[in-house]
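Weekly sync, protein design subgroup
Attendees: M.S., D.O., the rotation student, P.L. (late)

Item 1: inverse folding check
M.S. brought a backbone from last month's batch and wanted to see whether the design step gives back something sensible before we order anything. D.O. pointed out we never logged the input encoding, so this time it goes straight into the notes. Structure tokens as presented (149 positions):
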């Protein structure tokens, strides 16, 4: 399958430890300032999804511990891109989440062509607090870690 016309994303996690932020997530990154760990000075550059076109959605399903949605091009030429943005998913840890807790977010992606043929691209796991602790820090503390570079 060399020409993609659609994709499906599936995210799964422990809903008692984090919530999916639908208003900040999606197949495109909008040029916007966001706050991460209380620091509100991160600006993500705008980026279109790997299909590089307007999308229609079908099959969205969201619960406390999973999110899935399918996207298809709304016209245009099928994508032949070998790499690029598929989806940006934003989560917020629960107020009770501590550095001693861990969280794994499972992300799976499937692409499809114009004929409806599917290709499962695989599953990746994103871990919070399993190899590096999330620690509260001021912006000065973060900058000071890299002052020698």
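Designed sequence read out in the meeting:
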């Amino acid at each position: 399958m060399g020409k993609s016309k659609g994709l499906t994303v599936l995210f799964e996690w422990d809903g008692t430890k984090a919530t999916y932020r639908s208003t900040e997530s999606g197949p495109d990154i909008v040029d916007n300032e966001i706050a991460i760990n209380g620091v509100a000075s991160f600006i993500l550059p705008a980026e279109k999804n790997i299909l590089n076109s307007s999308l229609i959605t079908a099959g969205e399903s969201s619960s406390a511990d999973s999110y899935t949605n399918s996207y298809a091009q709304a016209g245009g030429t099928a994508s032949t891109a070998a790499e690029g943005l598929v989806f940006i998913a934003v989560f917020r840890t629960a107020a009770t989440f501590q550095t001693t807790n861990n969280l794994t977010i499972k992300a799976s992606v499937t692409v499809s062509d114009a004929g409806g043929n599917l290709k499962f691209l695989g599953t990746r796991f994103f871990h919070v607090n399993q190899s590096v602790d999330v620690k509260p820090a001021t912006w000065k503390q973060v900058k000071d870690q890299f002052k020698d570079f």
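Discussion: The longest strand covers residues 118-128. The chain has a mean pLDDT of 87.
Action: P.L. to compare against the previous round before Friday.
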